[in-house]
Fold:
Amino acid sequence: MQEPSQELINKAYAFDRKAQLELYKLCYPVLISVARRYRKNQEDHLTLVNNAFIKIIQYLDRYQEVRFYSWIKRIITNEIIDDYRRNKKYRDLFLQDAQVDAGESTVGDIDFQIEQEHLNEMLLSLSEASRTVFNLFVVDGFSHKEIGELLSISEQTSKWHVKMARKRLREVLNKELSHETR
Structure:
């Protein structure tokens, strides 16, 4: 994917509507792919994308010579976290401060590639809390400490959600594999 030109970015920041539309079209595929990992329905996806794009336009003056698409992924991830805080009684979702077994495996041992759409469906089978923590940790690379700070939960709770998400995903995969071998 080609990075937008600095000229387009400058015009969009200066409220040139055509430039903003062009920038939106460039950003949309990246933003929607992130939104789909976190939310189940199309309305939520579009709300997150549009809210993130508004922030992108507002903060274009802060954009520096880093990869533009990495920068906008960070913005939509922050928007997802903000949305999660605004709309959910998320503290109720994180009641357990469970201890994580040290011997638990950390990465799935499946050696075949899963199509992106199928993976998204599997992720959407997780509870919202576990899906959010799992995406932040595994997909977006946040540490458990950072996740704890972002969601106001303990590091142990973050680890517990990742552990539970991996367990659930393994169960789904094992079930699918057992159906295939029949």
